[in-house]
Amino acid sequence: MRLWSSVLISAFFLWLALRGQDLTQTARSLADAHYGYVLPALALYFTGVWVRALRWRVLLSPMGRFPVSSLFPVVVIGYMANDVLPARMGEVVRVYVFRSASGSRKRPHWARSLLNDCSTQRRCFCCWRRGQCLFPSTAR
Predict the structure, then answer these.
(1) What phi and psi, each to the nearest 5 degrees, are found at residue 111?
(2) 59 with 109: CB under 8 angstroms?
(3) Domain ranges (residues) in the chain
(4) Claim: this prediction has a pTM higher than 0.90
């Protein structure tokens, strides 16, 4: 019952998203796409996530030693939640998933998650500023 209700809800929202779209043009565009970039892009993405999991391991080191392999899915779930939930609630989800997955009775300090988030936003801002300096005509 739960599976079928999930399938029906997903089918409804898929219909809602695709109604009014020209599906033949979509199929043509997908056929003409260059998929040679997909594998390198996925490799870069997962390398970046692995580095972020490594950073989480360093941030959580006062609580204990956690392998990167157990933190990797926690980081991925947190970023997925950031994509679908408002107000960066993925950080809260990440802490919840970490605690559930690790079986640790200790709670990761919320400041660690906030520090991680602020660090990421600071780096994004710095990259944006560098881009403005390098390409001033596109900064408008």
Answers:
(1) -65, -30
(2) no
(3) 1-33, 37-138
(4) no
